[in-house]
Specification:
Length: about 290
């Protein structure tokens, strides 16, 4: 790490070269700070694994006390209450969207209970692995509200069955890791629980981290652009992006390594800290305690 950052609810380690492991507890204001400052705080990170620190729970959803607190408005005026609630929701959305702004791939290692907010969290990650013991639920309708932190915005982009996704959102019924795989929400089901899915996710992160960081961060950036733009717009943008990025020395290094058929190890230089500027920043970030 480039600095010692003390966090109350999130643990961040670097268990393998160039790979960060972010473990959640109660967290969301620290969550945005960690992802928006990943490289500044933790040095040369080229892939991130996101998991829980709790063996049987990835995330059980929003805290009921927090939910009830939202009803305690400081104003009796409905419009002013709405302004305050909107600001709160937007801040929460920005926090849970922070893995998208992180310039390196974020891999969610999901296990145990993954309800409500858990689905918002994993939907904002690049890759999702689930342990076979995972139980999911888009839970919000059961507590009287529509999902508002990212699940509905992203579900059609990360799933392959819009009808099933709508069914799960309307009913809040629980579904298994295998059904999540059939839905297309996760790309792999790992037999076991927390330890097994974290191990496989770290192995994947390590593989990604060995690639050219110019290529990987560019791929993430262009995938995000493609999601939000037409095919034609993305092709034109990609041409402009790669007009600069094709000049990297990483291409020559990668070609030499490929021609050596594994005999030659390749080492890529780290990226500058702000190779892909964040699209937005949340006002909810605490200052790190160094």
């Amino acid at each position: 790490m480039s600095a010692t950052v003390k966090l109350d609810f999130i643990k961040v380690t670097k268990p393998r070269p160039l790979v960060a492991h972010v473990q959640l507890a109660r967290f969301w204001k620290e969550y945005v700070a960690v992802f928006d400052n990943m490289r500044a705080w933790y040095g040369d990170v080229r892939a991130v694994v996101l998991s829980s620190s709790l063996p049987k729970v990835f995330c059980a959803g929003i805290d009921f006390e927090d939910l009830l607190d939202l009803k305690n408005s400081p104003s009796s005026d409905p419009a002013r209450t709405a302004v305050a609630l909107r600001r709160h929701v937007l801040s929460f959305q920005a926090a849970i969207s922070s893995p998208e702004r992180c310039p390196v791939p974020v891999i969610a290692a999901i296990h145990g209970v993954a309800y409500g907010l858990a689905v918002d969290i994993i939907a904002g990650c690049d890759i999702r692995y689930a342990a076979s013991d995972t139980t999911f639920s888009i839970k919000e309708v059961d507590v009287g509200l529509a999902p508002d932190i990212g699940t509905l915005a992203r579900l059609r982009h990360i799933s392959s069955n819009a009808s099933l996704g709508a069914e799960l959102a309307y009913t809040a019924r629980t579904f298994s890791a295998e059904e999540a795989f059939r839905l297309g929400v996760v790309s792999r089901v790992v037999e076991g629980g927390m330890d097994e899915v974290v191990r496989e996710s770290l192995a994947l992160a390590e593989e990604v981290a060995r690639k050219s960081p110019i290529a990987v961060t560019g791929t993430k950036h262009l995938l995000m652009h493609a999601r939000d733009h037409s095919v034609g717009e993305n092709l034109e943008y990609t041409a402009t992006w790669n007009a600069a990025m094709l000049q990297t020395e990483d291409i020559l290094k990668a070609v030499r390594a490929a021609r050596s058929k594994g005999r030659e190890e390749v080492s890529f230089e780290p990226l500058p800290m702000d190779i892909v500027p964040s699209a937005s920043k949340s006002d909810a970030k605490p200052k790190p305690k160094l």
